[in-house]
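FORM 7B: Structural annotation worksheet

SECTION A. Query
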Amino acid sequence: MSRVFFAAVMLVMCSGCMLFLPDGKAPEGKITDNSPQDKLSSAELENHAATSLCAFILTSEGINDICSADEPSERVLKNVSAVTGVRILKYSALRLAKEKERFILSAGKNQIIWQYPEQ
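SECTION B. Predicted structure
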């Protein structure tokens, strides 16, 4: 019995991740490099902004609905809504907009309450 157990443990140890990883080709891009990049692609910027905005909403009180000012902001809000439950409305006191290479959540014309990347 101990030989069977030992053989099973050795099989798992020697197989590496082959038992756990799915078949097929690995995704392209930097999978394990989490260092900050100087220039993010549009999709990367949206994904990072969605993650940061989720964290902000989940740690803040009273954010129930947000409106988007443009298409990139709407894509970010759809991802955020799936995680946080925040509603995407046509009109809201809070507005998410993409300006140049950053996303800004504002509660009025000059009242920025969140932005990514932070400055």
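SECTION C. Observations
The mean pLDDT is 85. The two ends are 62 Å apart (CA to CA).

SECTION D. Sign-off
Analyst initials: ____
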